[in-house]
């Protein structure tokens, strides 16, 4: 997405030369279009608030940024009520607010580098040696960390039951999304030469990953391998050309690469028909990584498999797998309870003699 397109989408960017210059740099550096688009949106919304209040964004202070945060926290959510407080029923999610503020913070970092400011009014949480409570300095807005949602066994079986009636392409995509814990972009960007049927592995190219840096090779199951073999035969009836693995079968886009949005619609429909409206293109990834944690995989192995740059991102799945510790906890508590009862009855003392 070019800088000109961004200014057409958000005209306020064209009224602020430094903002347009900063975004142009991100575009020229070849950053992911979705990343640049997200930064442009966050900065545009901030600049609109500054214009409304008559504030020069280059000279704005923390109080001015706080007004922007209040605006984000109180505006109606176009996707429905998003509970920020128990009785609020309004406001953008914490993650969305954080995303908007990242754009503003990076813009001020740019202004500092250009010598137009001395400090950043947004700032971020950072470790400072010598500070109390572990040296953690809180960011402008506290970051809430929520465990990802995953379906229970019955919900997952319901989705699979509906998926059985889908065409071979959709079944292969769902199987690979789960088996290899693929993100939506990684799945839709797979190419025919990324597959290695002999070893049942596939290559996730660095340019298709979230961080655009970490290429990885991940395995898939024998059952998924059988589905892939059937799909490749089917794909040959659509196109024999090498390239992207998954192709559209619609009349309008026949043999064209399958878009992210088409796959999202397919998954959305599966979830609705299965009575699991929370089901999304990322659910299979969450479920796969949680299942790996349940199997006892080490944290570093899960991070490598998932393509996480840091093991911190993988910790959520270790926490999610904690549901399987309930039986162990119950067993342990039964033992402790029995021991305490024995103490009350005196049988423990007799047993120790």
UniProtKB/TrEMBL annotation:
One of its GO terms (biological process) is DNA recombination. Pfam families: Phage_int_SAM_1, Phage_integrase. InterPro entries: CB, DNA_brk_join_enz, Integrase-like_cat_sf, Integrase_catalytic, Integrase_recombinase_N, Integrase_SAM-like_N, Tyrosine_recombinase_XerCD. Residues 17-112 form the Core-binding (CB) domain. The keyword DNA-binding applies. It comes from the Bacteria. CDD domains: DNA_BRE_C (cd00397). This is Site-specific recombinase XerD. It comes from Nonomuraea fuscirosea.
């Amino acid at each position: 997405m070019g800088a000109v397109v961004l200014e057409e989408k958000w005209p306020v960017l064209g009224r602020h030369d430094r903002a347009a210059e900063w975004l142009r740099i991100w575009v020229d550096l070849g950053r992911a279009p979705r990343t640049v688009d997200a930064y442009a949106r966050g900065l545009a919304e901030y600049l609109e608030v500054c214009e409304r209040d008559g504030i020069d964004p280059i000279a704005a202070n923390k109080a001015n940024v706080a007004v922007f945060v209040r605006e984000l926290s109180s505006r109606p959510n176009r996707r429905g009520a998003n509970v920020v407080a128990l009785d609020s029923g309004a406001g953008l999610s914490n993650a969305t607010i954080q995303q908007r503020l990242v754009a503003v913070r990076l813009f001020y970092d740019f202004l500092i580098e250009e010598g137009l400011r001395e400090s950043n009014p947004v700032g971020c949480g950072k470790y400072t040696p010598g500070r109390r409570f572990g040296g953690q300095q809180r960011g402008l807005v506290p970051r809430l960390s929520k465990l990802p949602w995953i379906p229970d066994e019955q919900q997952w079986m319901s989705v699979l039951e509906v998926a059985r009636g889908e065409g071979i392409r959709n079944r292969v995509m769902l199987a690979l999304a789960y088996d290899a814990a693929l993100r939506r972009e990684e799945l839709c960007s797979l190419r025919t030469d990324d597959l290695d049927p002999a070893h049942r592995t596939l290559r996730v190219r660095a340019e298709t990953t979230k961080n655009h840096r970490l290429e990885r090779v991940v395995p898939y199951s024998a059952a998924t391998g059988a589905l892939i073999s059937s799909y490749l035969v089917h794909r040959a009836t659509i196109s024999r050309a090498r390239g992207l693995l998954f192709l559209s079968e619609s009349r309008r886009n026949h043999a064209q690469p399958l878009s992210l949005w088409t796959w999202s619609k397919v998954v959305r429909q599966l979830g609705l028909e299965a009575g699991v409206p929370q089901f999304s293109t990322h659910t299979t990834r969450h479920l796969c990584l949680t299942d790996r944690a349940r199997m006892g995989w080490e944290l570093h192995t899960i991070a490598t498999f998932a393509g996480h740059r840091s093991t911190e991102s993988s910790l959520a799945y270790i926490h999610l797998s904690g549901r399987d510790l309930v039986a162990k906890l119950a067993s342990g508590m039964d033992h402790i309870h029995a021991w305490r009862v024995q103490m009350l009855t005196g049988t423990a003392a007799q047993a120790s003699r």
